[in-house]
Structures are given as C-alpha cells and as structure tokens.
Design brief:
2 helices
Length: about 180
C-alpha cells in the first residue's frame, strides 16, 4: 500500500504554506498591479476617445466658421459689386443729364442769338430798304406810306428768314436728338 512518510506530509504542509504565503505576498500584489494597470490603460483609452470626439467637434465647428466666413466674404463682394454697378450707372446717367442740359442750353443760346440777329437784320434791312428806295426815287421816304411799304418788305423778308430758321431749327433738333441717344 501506500506508505506515507513524514517527509511526504511535511512536503505537503510546506507546499500549502508556501502557496498561502506566495498568494498573500506575490499573487495579490501582482493581481492588484495588473488590475491597476488595466484600469490605467482603460482610462487612457477612454480619455483618448473623449479627446478624439472633442477634436472632431472642434474641427466641425471650425469648418462651419470657415464656411460662414467664406459666405460672408462672398456676400460682401457681391454687395460691393452691386454698389459699384449702381454707382457706375448713376455716374453715366448724371453725365447723360449734364450733356442733355448743355445741349439744351446751346440750343437756347443759338435760338436767342438767331432772334437777336434777326431783329438786327430786320432793322438794318429796313434802313437799307428806305435808303435804297430813296436813292432810286430820289425822294424822301419818311411818311406813313413809306413806313408801311418798308414794313411790308420786312414782313416778306421775315417770312423768308422764318423758313430758313425752321430748316435750321430742324438741324439743331436733329443734333440734339443725336446727342441724347444712348451709347
């Protein structure tokens, strides 16, 4: 049968005591160290995930801000372009208006000068007619009939001058119309 000797029993007791001593001295600290290490690694992983999520959110916010800034810049450029176009159109319209005013003033000045010249011409023509008639007939033309005769000649001259003036006015109106045409 089996022969159990005292050494065998001492060896079993030694192994059991050694097991409990190693368990208290070595196994529990190593297990605790491993658990602490696993917890530290898990905390690092969780922190890295949180940092990654936060970085992703910040990146999205920055992209949104960049897009908003680009949209604002585009809107500012469009507004500036529209303002420049409006200003250019306003300057063109002001220039056209000034040209129209200058052309109208020139037409009025020409008309006034024509009227003045016509009156001068009529007075000089009447004097010349009276002088020429007096020389031709060798009489003095100072009576009312002579004046009537001179006025009749002046009316005929005025009628001829008005026809010439109408033709001239048509040319001036045509020139004013051409200057007012849009480019």
């Amino acid at each position: 049968m089996l022969d159990f000797s005292v050494t065998f029993l001492i060896t079993i007791v030694n192994i059991t005591v050694l097991f409990f001593i190693l368990r208290v001295v070595l196994f529990k600290p190593v297990t605790k160290f491993m658990a602490d290490r696993a917890k530290l690694i898990q905390d690092s992983i969780d922190s890295a995930d949180a940092d990654r999520k936060k970085a992703k959110e910040l990146a999205e916010q920055y992209e949104a801000k960049i897009k908003e800034a680009e949209d604002d810049a585009r809107k500012i450029l469009e507004d500036a372009r529209e303002n420049a176009e409006l200003r250019a159109q306003m300057i063109i319209n002001e220039g056209k208006q000034e040209a129209r005013i200058i052309a109208e003033a020139a037409v009025r000045q020409i008309e006034a000068e024509k009227q003045t010249a016509m009156v001068k011409f009529q007075l000089e023509a009447a004097a010349l007619i009276v002088a020429a008639s007096a020389k031709l007939t060798s009489r003095d033309f100072s009576g009312s009939e002579n004046q009537r005769y001179a006025n009749m000649l002046l009316d005929e001259i005025a009628h001829t001058a008005k026809a010439a003036q109408a033709a001239s006015s048509a040319h001036v109106a045509l020139a004013a119309h051409v200057s007012q045409r849009p480019e």
